[in-house]
Amino acid sequence: MKKRIPNKSIDKLNGRPKTEYPTYTSDFMNYSNRYSHATRKENVGNMSQLFQQFLEESDDKSLEAWKKWYLDKYPDAVAEATDKAYAKLQQMINAVSKVDKDLVGQYVEDLIIDKTYYGLYHQKTILAYLAKLSKMSYRLATPEEESKGIDGYVGETAYSVKPVSYKNMVQLQEKIPVKMVYYVKTSDGLEIEIEEDAY
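Structure (tokenized):
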């Protein structure tokens, strides 16, 4: 049996009041945080481990108790992370001021035309290379297979071929149950990284 707990119910179940942000502002702050690495564990600690430690050590499990416990251990973490995220946000605001309709048009054309061409061209090249290494045949995925995140097959092995930047695209959070190959285009060719490389 499968059940779904919506976000508003999660907040209610945890007794957490919903924090409201003006439209789009939380997206900007998420991106500035991600690009600045402000809340990575090296800056604010390993939150899951710290929270587990808090639960083990504290009789009071309230939000207020957690806040006090954490800030006692990391008194400057919130302010320092805020400074890093805010500095990156200022850089992003400066960049947004340079975006006009022509630049958006250039971006959209690059995405639809250039990136499609080179992305699919690189997929085919990489699959052919892996086929040569393994002395097997290869084929590109069917539309149905593509909908499952598969880009092609080498022998019987399904592959998903993505640019290395895909690893950092947290918002995708896509779990692809196939062998992953990441690539980066360099001045003299393609560098590829094969997960669980069997070759």
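The mean pLDDT is 87. The two ends are 41 Å apart (CA to CA).
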